[in-house]
Structures
1.
Amino acid sequence: MAPLQAFVCKSTLLRCCIVGIVVTTITTVTRIYVRIKKQRRLHEDDFVLFTAVAFYFALAILYIVDLPYLYRFLDFASGKAPFHPSLLETYDHMMRISFAVTALFWVVLWTVKLSLLLFFRRVLRVTPLETVKIMWWFVLALTIATFIGCLVSEFSSCNELKDFTTLGKRSTTVVPSMFWLMNVATGKCISPQEQRYQIISLYYSFGADVLTELASKW
C-alpha cells in the first residue's frame, strides 16, 4: 500500500483557512454597507447569505481544529513518525470532524444557491412571463431536493451512523502500519456495500452541484 503524502504543508493550509475567513468577513461587511447605503435595507437573499457565511465560519474553524489530527495521522501514514497507540484516538477525532466538515460544506454551498435564487426572484418580479416564474419554482424544488439527497447520501454511507466514528476491533498481533490502522483498528464502514455507497455519495453530490448550477443558468 503506497504511503499517504501531504501535498500541502500544515502552515500553508492554516493560512488558507485564515485568509478565507478574512476575505469572507470583508466581503460580507462590504455587502451590508453597500445595501444599506444604496437601498436603505437588507433583503431576504442577504439574510440567507449571512446564514451561509455563519456556516462557513463554523466549517473553517472545524477545519482548523482538525489540522493537528490530520497532519499527525499523515506523518505516520507517510513514515515520518512511528506508530503510537494514541493514533487510534487521533484517527477517531479526525473522522468525527471530517464528517461534520463534509455536511457543513454542502450546507454552505446550497445556502449560497438559495440566496442567489432569492435574488433572482426579486429580479423576476418585474417580468410578465409566467413561464420564467414557473422555471424559478422548478429550480428551487430541484435545489432543495438535491440538497436533501446530499445529506441523505452522506448519512447512509454506513449501515449505522455510529460506524463513522466508532472504532472496531483492535489487533495486537499485527504489526502497526497504515493498512492496520485504517482496516483493522477502525473495522467499520469498510464492507463492499458501504464502500459502494460512499462512492455513490461522492459522485451524486458533485453531480447534484453541477446540475443545480446548470439549471439556475438555464
2.
Amino acid sequence: MKIILAGSSGFIGGEVLLQCLQNPAITSLIVLSRRELPQIASRDPRIEVIVLQDFKAYPDSVLQKISGAKICIWALGSKSNPTKPGMSYETEVEYPLTAAKAILAASKPEMKPQCEKIRFVFVGGIFCEREQEKSLWFLQEVRRARGLAEAKLLGFAEEHQGVFETVIVRSGVVVRRESYLPDWLPGINRFMIRVDELAAAMVDSALRGEGTKTLENSMVRSMGKVLL
C-alpha cells in the first residue's frame, strides 16, 4: 500500500509517521515537505521525501511520483507548527484541497470501474467551525479556515463519488503519548486525546476505509485505545 503523508515533522504527523512505519501493510510512504528531511528519509527505505516549493502547485514530476497512492493523511498545522496569522485560508484550505485534486488527477489514468477509492484523511478538530458566519470568541481565523477545509473536502468527495472519499478526524486537545487521561473524568473522552491514540485511529481509518465520514474525538479515542 502506497501512502502520502503531509506534516511528518509536526507533533501529530510525527506520530502518524511512526504508526505507518510499524505497519507492514504500508510498502511505500511519500512524505510531502517544503524542505529536505534527511532525518526522516533515513529512518526507513520505504520513505521518499518530496520537496514542494509551493503546496498549491504539483508539477508533472511530482504527479508521477504520487501516482498509485490510494491514501493521503493530512496533518499539517499541528500545535508544533501553527498556521501564521493571515495565512489560514491558504494553508488550511487551499493546500489540502489542491493535494486532493492532484492525487485524484495522478491516479485517474490507472483507475477502472470497481477500483479501490482514493481516501483522504484530514485532521480537523472539535473547535473547527464549518458555519462561516458564526461568531467565535477565540482563534476565529484558523477555526473558520479549518472548518471550511472540512466542508470543502467533504464536498469534493461528494462530487467524486465512486473514486474518492474523505475522512474528517475532529480531534480534541491532543496531548503527549505518556499523558494520563482518566476515563472517569467528565468530558475527557469528548475534549482530549493522546497523540498515539489519534495517530493509530487515523492510520487504521485510512487503511480500512468505510466511506466518507466525520469521526468525533470520543470515537477516535475509543478506536485508538483498542488499537493500542
3.
Amino acid sequence: MLTSQSTEDPHPDFAKVQASRPDWRHEESWHFTKTIDPDWKLGRGANDGGESLKKKHVEIDPYEDGRPAVFNYKLLISAIIPRPIGFVSTMSKDGRSTNLAPFSYTQVINHDPPLFTIGFAGGFSNAKDTLANLANTKECTINIVSEHFLEAANASSINAPHGISEWALCGLTPAPCTDVKCSRVKEAVFSVEGKLFSTQEFESRATPGKKTGVLAIVEGTRFWVREDALNEDRNLIDPAGEAILDRLHLQHLSIRSCRKRNTKISLTAAWPGGYMLIPIFAPVLRPMSRLGGIMYGRTVEGCELPRPGYEEKKKEGETDGLIKEKVEGQ
C-alpha cells in the first residue's frame, strides 16, 4: 500500500529534481519486441552468458538483531516490482463518509470466482478508513490506475485529517455502481465492484502481540470497462491494436486503408478472395505500477513467449540429454 513510509520524499528539493528530468513522452506507444534470445533452447539457462553466476549474494535474516521492520518493507517494495496499484473506494456504514486510496499490495488471485487481494499495514485495532469501511460494509471498488490520472491517484494518498474528502482533493469523478454503495472512479478504464470474501490479520514475529497487517480477499461481483478499450467478445483489454494484429498474424496483410475514430481503429486489409474490415484498439488502459520508494512505472513495451509443450520439444530432440529424475538440490 502507499503509506507514509512510501511517500517520504528522498529528494531535498523534489521540484528541482523533477524540473531537471525529460518531459513525459506522450508519443510513447505500446509495441512488441523480440525476446533477448529468440533462439533460446531448453537447458541453456540464463541468457546473459553466465554473467549472473559471477555475482555474489548477501544473505539477510529479516529478524536479525538490530534490523528495523521498516528495512524489510523498503527492501520488499524495491524488489517485488512492478506491482499493480489497486485504487480502492469505500464508504462508511452510515453512508456519511467516503474514502479513496491507492494500494500496491494488490493482486488478482482467481477468476472463478473473481478474487482480489488487498494488503493493509497495521491491524484492525488501528485500521485506517479504507480497511475500517471495508470491514464494516463488506464492500469496495477496485480501480486500475492509468497514465491519464496518475497525479490524481497519487494525490489521494495525502495525509489529510479524518473527514476530509480525497475525492475533492484529487479531483476525480465518482460514478455509481450496481452491487455496492460506494463509487467507482469514472476516469478509470477498468473497475471492479467487490464484496469482502475474507480477512486475515497478521502478528509481528519481531514484536509478539503487535498486529502488523491485514490481508483482505475481495470477490468481484461486477466489472466496468471503458467501451473503447474492450474487444467485441468483452473478454479482452489489449494493450494496443498492434497486439491484436500480432495474435491474428494480420501484420503480413496488405493494409488498404485505415480509419480512426477516437481510439477505435478500423483497417481494411487484403485477404485471399477479397478484403476484410479489422476493428482494433489503440492504447487505452496504459496502466501504471509501483516500484520502490516513490517511483512509478509505465508499461509501453512487451514480448511474447508461448508455453513450451513437453511432447513437442521431445519430438524435436530439444530434450535430448536433459531428461533426468529430480534430485536433491534441484
4.
Amino acid sequence: MVSEVRRKILNWYVRFDLFAGLMSGYETVLAREWFYVCQQYHRQQSQLHPDNIDCKIERAIADHRLTALDMSTLFAKLSRGAITIEEFLEQNLDISERITAWRHTLDPELTDSNYAVTSFAGARERDPNDIVDPYTPGGLYHGPLWTMNHLFIDWCAVSLMHKHQTAFILQQQPPEELGALALEQLRLFEAIEYWPGSPSGAVLAAQANLGMASLFLPKDERHITWCRKKLATIESMGYIYPPTLRTKLSELWSIPELHHWWLPNDQGYPPIIRSIRSFIEDRTMTPKDRPGEDLRDIKAIFQKVSLDDSPRASPESVGSVDMLYSQTSTPTTGFVQGRTPPYGVDHRNGGRTMLDAHSMHEQNAAFWDTYGAEEAPAFYSPPGRR
C-alpha cells in the first residue's frame, strides 16, 4: 500500500470487481482482506493528515467499498445456501444501516457548500423532455470535491441494488425509492455531462451505472428516448456496450432496431464506431486458450502484487492475500471452477426448502442478460453459461 502506482491499480480493479460481483450475485474475486487493508490504510492516512481533503475522500471511498463488498458477499452466501434466512436477515439489517449511515455521517468537508456548483452558465438550454433537472443548484461539486460526484453515483447504485435484491429475496414489492435512486444517478450523470467546467472525459467515467439505472425507469416513450440518446452519446465517444445490453433493452422496450444502433436512422453513429464494434467482437468472445484467460483475468497484475509490498509469495502460500491465484489459475476466494453453487434457499417457505442455483439466480437475470458474461471473468459465469 506504500506504492501509489499499486494503490491506483488496486483501486481500479476493486471497483471493477465489486461491480461484476454485484451484477452476478457471486462473491468478489479479491478476498475481504484486500478491502479491509485498504480501508485501514486510508483511515490511518486521514488521521495522520486531518486537514487533507484527499485523504478524507479516499477514506470515504474505502468505507463505502467495504460495505458494498459485505453486501455482495452476504447475497452470495445466501444464494449458495451457506447461511440461513435468519442469519441473512440479521446481517442484512446491519448492511442496510451501514449504507444509510455512510451517506448521513460523511465528514462535513466532503459536502462543503463552498464547492457546490450553483451556476451552469454557458451550458446548453435544458431540454423540455428531459427526465431529470441537471441544473439543480448545489447538485454537483467542483474543485477538490469533484470525485464526490462519482462516489454519490456509486452510493445510489449500491443502495438501489441492496433494496432491489432484498425485496426479491423476501418476496416483497420493489420499494418505490428504486426509481428515485435511479433518477438521482442519471441526474448526476447529466449534470457532469452538461456542466461546462467538467474535466475532459468525465462523462465516460460517470457512465458505468447508466445501463443498470435504465432498468428501473418507467417504460414510457419519454424515458426510453432519453436513455437511448444517452447510450448513443456514450457509445459515440468510443465506449462500446456489449451486445447483450442491446438485446436486453431491446426486449424490455420492445424496440428490435436497438440490436443495430440506439437511435433511428443511424443518428450519431460514426463510421469509426462501426469499425470498433466490429473489431471487438472477437475480443468479447470466450478466450480460446490459456493466455487469453490469463489476460482476461488480469492474472499478471495480481499474481505479483501484495498489500505490504513484500516479495511475491511462494506457491505454498496460495490462499493468502500475497498471492491471489495459484499456478492453476484457481481463484482463492471460494469459487468452484466449472460449475455454479449447487443450492439456493426458498425464502417463501421460511428458508427451509432448497432450490437449485438457476432458480436462486433469477434475481440477477436482468443484470446478466444486460451486461453479459463476456463483460466479466470466467468465474463470474451465471448458471448454464460455462
